[in-house]
Specification:
Low-confidence stretches: 309-320
Mean pLDDT: 84
Strand order of the largest sheet: 1-2
Order of helices and strands: HHHHHHHHEEHHHHEE
Number of strands: 4
Radius of gyration: 25 Å
Largest sheet: 2 strands, antiparallel
Length: about 325
């Protein structure tokens, strides 16, 4: 999984988040702002894709006529349909690039926020070791006790020793030798026999003291609120998206499966990732929902006024 954070996109996002934090001093606001900024940067591509899909939907009747006319010759059907698409400047695969880009951004934010969560958790542990558990104020956000842990009724307020070790190994490229030396000096980690290990007794005692000092003994980190919101917003976003896209009866079963599978999958991912990533997913979904509503309303008004996709001499589709 190291490829998620060991790439130039994730590294760039980490750098921008840290730079913005110097001015705003609130990671939740930074994540909301950078999510919106990134989506605005790719807005022209989103609009172009929606125009293409709308134009493609408008050709459904003509495509069905061609299928009936050349029903006995499938090759001729494909040739005529492709010719129609070329003449109208429509690309059947025009929606693939925005979807691919959204997936790349999702992975990039997942990796970058995992790096920042690891750094922040390590900073909390070192602060407690250096100055005492009472010096640590856990970064609470809404109902989540620790913003860098999952919003889950099954997650601890601070990483377990096993989770802390996994984080050290996964983000080794981002941890300075000085930080590793400090962890070792406080007997939190060791390199016995050349293998990195976490001293579970010392680590667990320290994290227990931090949790107690913050009055959270016996509490889990959250209540699954953000993961559920991520799933609901993704479901609603997909419902809005399908309204503006041509429907293929042969794909109805698959589309229905995806409509429910991806929201459920997003709940699982967000329930096992830090709350910061769940926040990103929710904001991204809300942005796309707003964009869908605005563009759908815009296209409906244009069509109600009798304006339809037309062909220009350069074979590009646009709304006049």
């Amino acid at each position: 999984m190291s490829f998620l954070n060991d790439n130039f996109i994730s590294e760039a996002i980490v750098a921008v988040i840290k730079w913005m934090f110097e001015f705003i001093n609130d990671y939740s606001i930074v994540i909301i702002l950078i999510t919106i900024i990134v989506r605005l940067v790719v807005l022209p591509l989103d609009i172009k894709q929606r125009k293409n899909m709308r134009a493609l939907s408008g050709l459904t009747a003509e495509v069905e006529n061609l299928k009936k006319r050349y029903a006995n010759n499938p090759n001729q059907v494909n040739a005529k349909v492709n010719e129609l698409y070329r003449e109208r400047g429509v690309k059947p695969t025009g929606g693939c690039l925005p979807m691919l880009l959204s997936l790349i951004l999702l992975f990039a934010f997942f990796g970058s926020l995992r790096v920042i969560a690891s750094e922040q958790s390590m900073s909390l542990i070192l602060q407690a070791a250096e100055y005492g558990a009472e010096s640590v104020d856990l970064p609470q956000w809404l109902w989540v006790h620790n913003f860098w842990q999952p919003d889950s009724g099954l997650a601890a307020v601070l990483p377990t020793s096993t989770e802390f070790l996994s984080s050290l190994i996964a983000n080794a490229n981002y941890i300075t030798p000085q930080t590793m030396a400090m962890l070792q000096n406080h007997d939190l980690i060791s390199f016995a026999s050349g293998t990195l290990t976490v001293n579970e007794t010392v680590y667990s005692a320290l994290t227990t003291d931090v949790i107690s000092a913050n009055g959270l003994t016996g509490f889990n980190n959250g209540w699954f609120g953000l993961p559920l919101l991520a799933g609901v917003t993704l479901f609603l976003n997909q419902k809005l998206s399908t309204k503006s896209q041509p429907q293929n009866p042969q794909m109805a079963g698959t589309n229905k499966f995806m409509l429910y599978f991806f929201p459920i999958f997003s709940v699982y991912i967000c329930a096992t990732s830090n709350a910061a990533f769940a926040l990103y997913w929710i904001v991204s979904n809300l942005y796309m929902m707003a964009l869908n509503l605005i563009l759908n309303s815009y296209f409906k008004k244009k069509e109600a006024a009798g304006e339809k996709p037309v062909v220009r001499k350069d074979r590009k589709v646009d709304l006049q």
